[in-house]
Design a protein that fits this description.
Layout (H helix, E strand, L loop, with lengths): L1 E6 L2 E7 L4 H10 L5 E8 L2 E7 L1
Antiparallel strand pairs: 1-2, 2-4, 3-4
């Protein structure tokens, strides 16, 4: 899993599919508490999620 801040307040998470509950918990700890998911796309075995705060 990788999380990057693409621009201030906009984060992109890249996860292997299917994400495990522990990976989702880890993701929650890597993002600001007030961030919310604005887009998600799956490409084969990869999940891309965009978060904004």
């Amino acid at each position: 899993m990788q999380v990057t801040e693409e621009q201030p307040g906009v984060f992109v998470a890249v996860l292997d599919m299917p994400p495990t509950p522990s990976e989702m918990a880890q993701l929650a700890g890597m993002l600001p508490a007030d961030a919310f998911c604005v887009d998600a796309e799956q490409d084969d075995d990869t999940l891309y999620m965009m978060w904004e705060r």
